[in-house]
Amino acid sequence: TYRVQFPANYDPNEPLPLIFYFHWLNGTIDEVLSTHGPAIWEVGNASNEAAFVWPQGLTVYGGDQTGWELACDGEDIEFFDAMLSNLADSRCIDLNRVFAAGFSFGADMSISLACCRDASVVRAVAPASGAFDQYDDDFVCPGLSPPSVRYSYGTVDPVYTPIEFSEVSAQFRSQLGCSTDFDPAPVSPCGETWTEDGSTVTCSCKSYRGCSQPVIDCEFANMGHTTAAGWREDTWDYFMSF
Question: Which member of 9, 126, 132, 185 has the greatest number of CB atoms within 10 A?
Answer without folding.
Answer: 126
